[in-house]
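Note to self: the last two entries modelled the partners one at a time, which told us nothing about the interface. This time every component goes in together.
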Amino acid sequence: GDSVTQMEGPVTLSEEAFLTINCTYTATGYPSLFWYVQYPGEGLQLLLKATKADDKGSNKGFEATYRKETTSFHLEKGSVQVSDSAVYFCALRLIQGAQKLVFGQGTRLTINP
Amino acid sequence: DSGVTQTPKHLITATGQRVTLRCSPRSGDLSVYWYQQSLDQGLQFLIQYYNGEERAKGNILERFSAQQFPDLHSELNLSSLELGDSALYFCASSGRTGTTGELFFGEGSRLTVL
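The predicted structure of the combined assembly is written out below.
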């Protein structure tokens, strides 16, 4: 079935460090790909998305590129801040069948000052 | 603010009881999705409704049921509650079917079963 695998957390970095959170997917069709973020005590917010191969999604300094050949959508940020501390979820959504979001298990990120 | 409203935000109840969680989707959105977030299982899809009709079912227990009303709000009913049902329950909405845009999530209802 369709699935998303994220790198396991927790991830702890110092402020201004480079961030990569790996995400790979398995899908029977051509999904759209998403990164959602969940700040402490809050719901999920869309961080960025990409709807087709080679698209790059970006927002708030975060980027991810839809790589069909490697079925990946890794999240990157060049210089993290304490305020980026949150749980990050990679997800896919297919246009056919059940159009639900399929989530990875989430990666907890903590940024220390 | 996503535009999706969930009530109640917090709920504490006892085993064996029944609760109802309510969700109002974004204005104009026809699809409503319910997800369960527990500590050890991440985000699990429960059920989807589109314009009042059940569209897809995920890992929803038989003790749980949902519906979407003509005004498009949705309710998730959880009965014969067990300790393991303690979780954060999210509602999300999206627009017309056949698109692969994002889902918009509410802030969740945190259920604690004692």
